[in-house]
Structure formats: structure tokens, C-alpha cells
Amino acid sequence: MRPLVVQKYGGTSVGSVERIQEVARRIESTVQAGNRVIAVVSAMAGETNRLLELAGAFCKDPVARESDVVVSSGEQVSAALLSIALETRGTRARSFLGHQIRIHTDDAHGRARIRSIDADRLAAFLAGGGAAIVAGFQGINEDTQDITTLGRGGSDTTVAIAAATGADACEIYTDVDGVYTMDPRIVPDARKLERISFDEMLELSSLGAKVLQIRSVELAKRYDVRVHVRSSFKEETGTWVVPEESNMEDGLVSGVAFDRDQAKITLTRVPDRPGLAAHIFSPIAEQGIVVDMIIQNVGADGSTDMTFTVPRNEADKAVEIVRGVAAKIGAGEARTEGDIAKISVVGLGMRSHAGVAAKIFEILGGEGINIHMISTSEIKVSVVIDAKYAELAVRVLHDRLVGTGKVDS
Ligand code: ADP
Ligand code: ASP
Ligand code: MG
Predict the structure, then answer these.
(1) Model confidence over 243-302: pLDDT tens digits?
(2) How far is the CA of 14 from the centre of ligand 1 (A)?
């Protein structure tokens, strides 16, 4: 059977009629080279934001079910336009929406998780040649058959199709030509990585590098799908996201990421009793709010201050929940604090090197940047600082740590 290639095209890559033509040309040449092609597309650049704004024109918190019906329409349009472009060029093509290939998800509107994909319909179409064009970012709730969306950047996750179909290749076409040591828009002399391990990419994605959405990396790792991230405007090889290889630890730090979409919440005077942390964090988790860093400080009077971070757009909701809990457990006040940014340094080499965290603190201290929170894992160090220092911090950390392979350079 002819090889099966899954390609994903992001919003900029399908952002205009001319760009859709370019994508059609690339798909056509992949088909002509003897492949079967499944192309997953995002909405045209800016469209999802526009649709979200429209859905929010009536109230701050529109009904999630209807909001998903609105925002998923962006991908419906781009998938059909690309199909039209291909058919016009003489390449057989057909668009498929989430429900047509049964991309079944849970019921978490706006951030649904894929449970299963029925690839049979795609396979049947592809048996006749050409390209199947799948609307990314959308699925249907398995129980109610309602349209769901997969979270911002969620078209990447639709490449779960590569796992479901056992594709021979999975290519993510975007507006950068690979994964860099730092977002090249912020640090222009960032370096393109030839390869990066699933685990490092998972960290970078979860820490703010939006080049790949985190769930797509989780799926790629789980199903061992090697992903090639590359530019839709150039022919060159991009970056391969692959299982860890033995020589990957050569460099100490492989990337720096930053996230300005977090907010810090502090609850004061929490009584120092077993079980209270669960009282505070369980109701937050029940609302699907992801708490990231947590620190607890015991004060002179024996009570504690609890500080933690949540996604900025869920901070109000989290503070409200915490205020409810505070009243019940006799804690003090809950408040959102300051404009913060989280800066992270990631690298497999950190596993076997003790000095990286200390070096990071020294570099930031040297710039007069105060650190509010710290968290570490085997292969990353994250710090929370004032948002106004984010770009400076990222630049100095990148300059001093990336690519030198040494901590003490
Ligand atoms: P698409 O619409 O194709 O999905 P995105 O905007 O979601 O594209 O992701 C690509 C963007 O990710 C790039 O334009 C770049 O600014 C940003 N980015 C952030 N971190 C990195 C990184 N480490 N390497 C490459 N790009 C990055
Ligand atoms: N169009 C959606 C978004 O803007 C999904 C995607 O582009 O991956 O988030
Ligand atoms: Mg994206």
C-alpha cells in the first residue's frame, strides 16, 4: 500500500487564498510522489479569536456548548477551501469534519480530550487516491453528539489521527522552520534544534512554547509518533521530535520558554492543620482549573500563607472558590497578586548536573531580577518573576546557558 502521510497546517499557513493555494500545491506534490495524504487544518489566522469575540459579545461567559459550535466553524471553512483548491488543481480531495470521522471526545467544552477516532472513513476515501482534509481542533462528545473543541492550539492534537491510522509520517507545518532554543520572535539569535526528545518538548510546550500544543506531544510520545515540525514556506528539514537517544544529553540546556498567561493567588493565614491543602485545591481541581506552582510559608504565628499559580483567564474563578473555602476553614483573605511571568529552562543534561538552578538564580540576581517562586523537575527549572522583566530574563538566560553546553561559562 502507498505510504500514508499526515500533515498539519497551522493558521498562518492557511491564512489567505494565496497561502491555501501554496498548501494545495505542497499536498498535490506529496500525492504525486506516491503517498496517501491526510491534511489537518487550523482556521485561517485570526479567525478563532474573531469567532470567540463574537460568541462573547452577549455575555462574559457564553454557554460553552454554543461557543464551541461557533468557534469550530473556522476549521470547517479552511478545510473546505483547501479541498476546493485541490479539486480545482485536479487532485482528488474531500473535507471531513470531526463528527464525520467520529473524533469522539469527553464533554469538556473548550478543552475536550480525544477518546477515539474512527479512521475507517478516511481509509475508505484514501483507497481511491488523493487527499483527505480534516478540520482540526474539533470533535464530538461521545455521549451527547455535541460539537466540542480541543483547546487553543488544538489542531495540533488532531494529529492523533497519525496514531489512529498508523501513519508513516507526521509533519506539522507552521510559520517557523522548526523548534528553536527559544521563541525566535523574542530571541532572534535562538538556534534551530535538529532533534528534541518527547520529554523536553513536553516541558517546553507545557511551559509556554506554543509551537506544539502539549496534548499533541503527549499523544506523540504515547503512540511513538515521530513528529517533523517544519515551515510551510520553505523546503528545508525542520526539527524532529523523537524518543530520547543516547547522545541527546550532550547539550546541558536545550531550550528556554516563558509564559505570561499565569496569575498568582495568595491565601493568607491558613491554619496549620493536616488536610487543609486538600480542602483548598480539591474544589479548584473539580472546576478543571490547573494549578501549577504552589508554595507554602509558615509565618511567625504558626499559620501559613499559601501561594499558587493558575492560568490567568481562570484566576477570578479560582479566587472566588478559594474565598468560599477560606470562610469555612477560618483562613484570611485570598487575592490575586501582581503581573507575573514564568520563565523556564529545559534540558535533559540537567539530570546529571547539579549547578544549573544555582546558575539561573545567579544570572537573574545579577540583573536585579527578584524571584517570587521556584519549581524544578529532573529536566527543568522554572521561576516566577515580575512580568516586566520577562523578556530581559529570557534573553540573559538564553545568552548565558543555551548552546554553551557549560554551566560556568
Ligand atoms: P500554528 O498556527 O502553525 O499552529 P503557532 O502560532 O501555534 O503556529 O506556533 C508557532 C509559533 O510558536 C511561532 O511563530 C513562534 O513564535 C512560537 N514559538 C514559541 N516558542 C517557540 C520555539 N521554542 N520554537 C519555535 N517557535 C516557537
Ligand atoms: N484555530 C484554533 C486556535 O486558534 C486551533 C489551532 O489553530 O490549532 O486555537
Ligand atoms: Mg499552533
Answers:
(1) 988 776 567 788 999 999 999 999 999 988 888 889 999 999 998 899 999 998 887 777
(2) 15
Reading phi first (left if > 0) and then psi (alpha if -120 to 50, else beta), residue 288 is in left
Return d(Cα 351, Cα 343) in angstroms, integer.
Answer: 19
Q: What are phi and psi of 35, to 5 degrees?
A: -105, 155
pTM above 0.85, yes or no: yes
Q: What is the pLDDT of residues 260-273, one digit of tens each?
A: 999 999 999 998 88
Domains of the chain by residue range? 4-175
- Cα distances from 167 to residues 1, 38, 100, 173, 283, in angstroms, run 12, 9, 19, 16, 41
pLDDT over 90 percentage in the chain: 85
Closest ligand 1 atom number to CA of residue 181: 23
Is residue 48 in contact with ligand 2, taking CB distance under 6 Å?
A: yes
C-beta 154 within 6 A of ligand 2: yes
Just give the CATH number of 4-175.
Answer: 3.40.1160.10
Residues with CB under 5 A from ligand 3 (ion): 10, 153
Mutate which of 9, 13, 42 for ligand 2? The one with the most ligand atoms within 8 Å of its CB, which is: 42
